[in-house]
Batch of 2 targets.
Target 1
Amino acid sequence: MAILITGGCGYIGSHTCIELLKAGQDIVVLDNYYNAKPEALRRVQELAGKEFPFYECDIRDADGLRRIFAAHKIDAVIHFAGLKAVGESVQKPLEYYDNNVGGTVTLCQVMAEMGCKRIVFSSSATVYGMNNPSPLQEDMPTGAVTNPYGRTKYVIEEILKDVCVSDPDWTVVLLRYFNPIGAHESGRIGEDPNGIPNNLMPYISQVAIGRLPRLSIFGDDYDTPDGTGVRDYIHVVDLAVGHVKAVDFALKHTGAEVFNLGTGTGYSVLDLVKAFQDANGVEVPYTIAPRRAGDIATCYSDPSKAERLLGWKAAHDVVDMCRDSWRWQSQNPQGYGD
Ligand code: NAD
Ligand code: UFG
């Protein structure tokens, strides 16, 4: 019995591999290295003190997937593999629909053919769109998304729910992540974005280490306590533990279930900058810039359903998140290197 992790070399996948191994699960990992480096997996094995099978494989390659399912008894799949850059998705929508939607359809077809009908999927708070008030709850309407990346998440959620309706043997767990930041407390694995980061925490860390001159804060005139955008930042290790709980749930239930994975607390951009400076004793110079297209003022979760049904609750606070992000960045100024 093993869990297949697609995209297991990436930021969230690598942390989840460690937590699954810690919980005693056997894992099989696949990744096409589009946005990851072999060094990440090497460090996961080093931290876990365990080896596990890895396949360099694309989720759109049905024969490659069949070979993996034929070689291992896979009980459930945690499906992280996908493209995730919002801005890039506007420039390259077909790549996003092909990789994220097409790849998920191929994966599910092979799963059904090979007799594995349990999937935990990486969705996103982005599916709640622009119109719902926070705290966001799982039964609020979804789909009013503003970019192709977000639409792939919405469409995949709908496809997976349809699959459950068509065949009662399927189990689908849709996990809507809020804003994952932080890194493993060892400082050995973390987020290693290509090029200039789009997301706030990697940008802050790269300013603090001197790779970038200053942070631009996108708007200080939102309807929030200090005018800057408010988000629900969640430690990536808490998110990883959420997947261990979600797999346990998937192994015991059928049908489709949706869970928010967040802390339930919102922090503004200025709150996070200050928390990072205070936690780490470093300066993060910033300027106020115009709003970024597509951003909303406030987005945070109601995480009570996950606590109720999965027995999961975030355990790390914002100081832990800032400290662990900085430990990873300062010990690995160039990420995993070339
Ligand atoms: P990541 O880019 O670090 O990890 C994704 C991994 O998937 C990478 O290792 C990449 O090489 C691999 N991959 C991409 N396309 C593939 C394909 N066709 N076949 C095989 N492997 C492929 O991203 P992450 O931050 O770890 O995110 C994991 C998942 O969570 C993604 O689906 C992402 O959309 C979703 N998500 C992330 C966030 C976030 O802020 N990080 C928020 C919400 C949802
Ligand atoms: N921000 C800045 N400067 C930056 C980067 C971000 O001020 O250089 C601000 C944004 O305007 C926003 C906040 O910091 O107010 C957070 O921005 P991020 O880009 O880190 O995160 P988002 O909330 O925009 O989006 C993230 C992921 C999406 C995902 C979404 C919801 O990038 O993929 O969370 O889960 F869909």
Note: The chain is about 40% helix and 20% strand.
Target 2
Amino acid sequence: MTLLKDLTIKKIHDGLVNKEFTAFELTKEFFDYIETRDAEVQAYLSLDKVGALAAAEQVDIAIAKGEEIGMLAGVPMAIKDNLLVKGLPATAASKMLENYTAAYDATVIKKLKEAGAIFLGKANMDEFAMGSSTENSAFKATKNPHDLERVPGGSSGGSAAAVAAHMAVAALGTDTGGSIRQPASLCGVVGLKPTYGAVSRSGAIAMASSLDQIGPLTKTVEDAAIVFSVIKGKDPLDATSVDVVYGDELLNPKLEDIKKLRIGLPKEYFIEGMDDYTKGEINKAIEKIKSLGIEVKEISLPNTKHALSCYYIIMPAEVSSNMARFDGIRYSRLDALQENEPKTLLGIYHEQRGQGFGKEVRRRIMLGTYVLSSGYYDAYYAKAQKVRKLIKEDFDNAFKEVDVILTPVSPTAAFKIGEKTSDPLQMYLSDIFTLTLNLAGLPGISIPVKQYEGTSELPVGFQLVGKAFREADILGIGQFYERIR
Ligand code: GLN
């Protein structure tokens, strides 16, 4: 069989159709490999060997019957642990949900199941997706497969590490401020955050509902396009999802169309904060993209300097409201009540929420409750909403001049485990280049500057930002870029 490390969705599809291997054999091989490799990487929180092998058998039966199979049939995937897969744990890496089993499938999971995808297991993450290093998981810290002393990024660090370490061919993550793109960049894989509304969030454990999106992490841009084409679409279970028709160019971009796209480099993203290594790598990518014949010019997004503070008002406000549902009574944490059981309802809340939530989650609930409280609401929350509008308008103006915007993903490559845990502000800066897109609702993709496998260098990704619902533009440039990388 082909080496696991060489597999892409495309190659798996061809291999299955040409009967080079069966889905069952492939799935088994992945579990054998996970057993050794994940002992050091720690990407998975739980595995579902029985379910995955049974699903693989169904794919093999369909092939044996001569049925036509879709591109994702038999493709081994990792699913971030804040996405519900019926019958499997969904802890969101929190003690609060330690004993919770998902009662239904998220819409994205339903779609992937119909397409024949195989779910190997649930991937580690920062608790409730709050963090940039996966160190906020209540259960364990995932390691960067390129250097086990470093973080994989976060919050979808388990998903990114699983793909980068060849323990899955693709994964799903969620992105509220950068949680798909930043770990993709730090692990050297591709990560797509779709436009707000492009993918249903039904069955995703919400963090900040006006910012959250679900998207794929994959080895190639082409694979990201394939997964996105399956999970996108309007869903009656998510009122924010929209009906958009994506043309042929999503999966089959043409170079003559791609060459017509103009790319903008926002000067505010290239001024300060980036380390020299990251800057150098990104500049190489820009030169390569120019060599495709695409016009690249400088643009300005003047309100960028307000984005981080705006995000850290709006996000915690929504977090504090979303976390209110975890009272310790629902979702089964009551089992964990201590011997000195509190006698009052308030006592139960204090005990359950105090013990069930980790430090970062509690920090954000307090911040969010504060900015929403009467007396502070206008000064913080209402003001941040106005700033959010300005940030969105910056992008609207820029997109009159260019079609796509290119930026760094994160100011640095993967940092050491423990390096930023005592300084939340340093950690928050990891997402300075990505969270603007969540505030503006725009699609963004992180693409590795080169192949880092087998080198001693740390991966670096660059980000392409598209107009709303123009995933095809950023995926298209990305696909041509990776052919000449
Ligand atoms: N790292 C950012 C945060 O901690 C983004 C998280 C995310 O996108 N889920 O809020």
Note: The mean pLDDT is 95.
